[in-house]
Write a structure and sequence with these properties.
Layout: E1 6-7, E2 10-12, E3 27-33, E4 36-37, E5 43-47, E6 53-64, E7 68-78, H1 81-93
Length: 94
């Protein structure tokens, strides 16, 4: 018997997440539908649901249930407006 699983290397924040609250060095926890795997302890990018890249993060805790994935991450670096634009323009274009 199989189980649907998504492997991710980019964390897309839920639409209702208040991105203005992001601060370097702070830890946040979000939930996503479905079973998702993220690398733990490896720097990843985080973006909005509209693919605006915001920061580098590191997943610290990943909790899987049959229906949901709970992700705790620490913000390593917030992108400047210029960095955000470069990431957003180049990743979305490909």
């Amino acid at each position: 018997m199989g189980m649907p699983l998504t492997v991710n290397c980019l964390l897309v924040l839920p639409a209702e997440f208040d991105t203005a609250q992001l601060r370097a060095g702070e830890t946040y926890t979000i939930e996503k539908d479905g079973v998702r795997l993220f690398p733990i302890g490896v720097p990843l990018e985080v973006c909005t649901s509209r693919h605006q890249y915001l920061a580098k993060i590191k997943v610290t805790v990943l909790t899987l249930t049959p229906e949901r994935t709970v992700i705790s991450f620490i913000v390593l670096k917030l992108f400047s407006p210029e960095e955000s634009r470069v990431y957003s323009d180049n990743f979305v274009r490909t």
